[in-house]
Amino acid sequence: MNVLVLLDHDGARLRPTARELLTLARGLPGAQVHAVWIGAAPGGETRAEAGAHGAAVLHHVLVDGADEHLTASVAEVLETVRTEVGAPLLLVSSTFEGKEVAARLAVRTGAGVVTGAGAVERDAEGRFVAGKTVLAGTWTTRCALTGPFGVVAVAPNSVRATPLPQAPEPAVVEHRVQAPAAARAVTVHSRELRPTSDRPALAEAEVVVVGGRGVEGDFSAVEELADALGGAVGATRVATDEGWIGHEAQVGQTGVTISPRLYVGAGVSGAVHHRGGMAASATVVAVNSDPDAPIFEFADYGIVGDLTEVLPALSAEVRRRRG
Ligand SMILES: Cc1cc2nc3c(=O)[nH]c(=O)nc-3n(C[C@H](O)[C@H](O)[C@H](O)COP(=O)(O)OP(=O)(O)OC[C@H]3O[C@@H](n4cnc5c(N)ncnc54)[C@H](O)[C@@H]3O)c2cc1C
Question: What pLDDT digit, counting tens, does each position of 229-253 carry?
Fold first, then answer.
């Protein structure tokens, strides 16, 4: 059984989510993993990394006639490769782009789609079943894909990427795909890389420290703890609306959806609109001066205290333990 995986990459190296998807795909019973890399050819080290995480075949695809990053182009590529290899399942990461690609493919092929999934398995009837939390984390659901082809967009950090101790390099298959009319109708005038930061990308980070109204405009203690833990910095809408931090840091229903292994909320009340974007976090730690704050109802660990005292103490202890 062939399983397709769309590889997120930065032009040279796999992104962490790509390694996670490969690890997940190779664990499905009887799966042969076909990874799809769109753009200039990956180098030997990257091919080896894809192989080590489970790719048996690497489809290297160049797009003619339009920008390869456009989701219409990506959907065309995936449909071409899928038709060739006959895969019943495609895994993409549950990013804005991944979800849009999934939707385009569903419209074109009638595929069933599950987004924001935390797990994928095969049931006794051979169907793919994706698990996800919904309604601000209050329900866990399992969705079976019943058609001949399904797409699952998997939330970052749902799987721990683990390389195989020994794995051959994947066989490389070259493709050239003509961009569809929807992509050719778009002209990309410029593309700017986000300013680089030593912190991981918010949507993909394994650790996220979020500051809310309680920081009262000063994110330094939140940033210090995020850096001590090697994590990303997030914020509630109150904090971004106040202009204390950029809107790209907003976590929640109308912001970024995150699924870290560790979420730390400091001065965050735990409002439902915020919870909607972080409910898939594996472990939730809350620091709040109000013992009745709603966040304590769903936090795994709660510290009642002033964040200006608690966060520096946590950062110091993390640094001490990390030596
Ligand atoms: C349509 C819609 C969409 C929305 N989308 C989003 C979204 O995407 N993301 C989002 O976050 N919000 C969103 N909101 C807003 C959301 O409803 C809440 O208003 C917001 O999340 C609250 O932010 P907060 O927790 O920072 O502030 P508050 O609710 O005011 O909580 C601040 C907390 O800080 C604590 N505190 C104060 N001082 C300290 C201190 N020194 N030390 C420790 N704790 C302290 C307080 O006890 C309190 O619990 C949306 C609202 C609407 C209507």
Answer: 999 999 999 999 999 999 999 999 9
